[in-house]
Here is the input.
Amino acid sequence: VIDGTEQKALFITGKSHCDRSADDCGGGGLSQYRVVQYLCQSEYAEYGGSAKFFFRGIRLFWADVFETDDAAAADQTEDSAEAAGTESSAASGDTVTIGFAQVGHESDWRTASTDSCLSVFSADNGYDLQFVDCDNDSAVQLEAVRGFIEQDVDYIIIDPIVSTGWDTVLTECEEAGIPVIVIDRTIDDSDKYVSWVGSNFKTEGLAAGEWLKAYTGAKGISDVNVLVIEGSTGASATIGRTDGFKEIADANGWNILDSQTGDFTQAGGQEVMESYIKSYEGKFNVVVCQNDNEAFGAMDAMKAAGISYGVDGDVILVSFDACTAGLEYVMSGDINADFECNPLAAPFVEEVIKQLQAGETPEKEVYMTEHWFVNEDVLSTINVNGEDQDLTVVTKEIVDAQY
Ligand code: GYE
Here is the structure.
């Protein structure tokens, strides 16, 4: 009651846990939107359609309630809604169209990543996903993104094959008003994307190095001669894992005999390992593969050459990713340690999209949670970046629960 007169007010709350009754919006702006849309549909039905008219609907509703017509404020609301992308069909409850330029299909990790996106961004969940497998070809990936701009999708997801060469096409996305979300690998020469969801690859490399330091120390191995099978050249996953591991290797005076790309594939890992065996047989006691599939190929090459590896072998085998098949080999003792990289980014990407729909600003960087897996119960923790982190001994339950 103001000045003795009873006023009407619309109060849209923002509680994070709520009973979702019609006048309680839940945690996010999207639900707020739905509450107001409901009001518009009931009292201002003609304004319930597109976001643009919807905001006009709010403005009229507001004007009615408060007997004022602040056109400037209403126009501003419309502008910011457009800038935030809420003007898309998605905002009015229609299908959300997404273009996803995926790296390729080179590994188990990649399959898990693709499956995660396909299941979250399904038609049943209200999405129309344009999926392009770029087969590890950067030119194809740029073309795919430009195709999404042509189609005027609501959002573009990119898992960048390489970390550079992105500014021009991201500027084109920006000019087209299409928000870009980057997943997994990073883009290092442009910041024209809304959010990145992925892993800290350098930390993974540091963890592998710290584990090897502690493990060789515990086993009394003082001579450390390493062969590295790198991932795809120019990929931030490769760069980070290489840098992190090298930092620890240099600090401990280890001998890195060679470091070549196996392109994150089983065939690549096998080929590189075969050529390493020709050049370095008898000279190495550690093989670091930058993903599980390369490790499977390296195992085939060592087996064929009669070289023993794993917990009972002559060669310590280290891997990254920790997908199901990788963890099975950790459990059997063929791989000594596997540093997880979590491929299930899609639910986090969906969260980012919901925030954008609501006109909110998502976090620029979202990090996935990861674990370090081993076979032997020799060490319980390692110190990474000054922090004690657990080592997990792989069990059948862990393998069964993994992607
Ligand atoms: O480690 C590898 C995949 O980018 C983190 O790419 C990803 C890497 C992953 O092919 O298996």
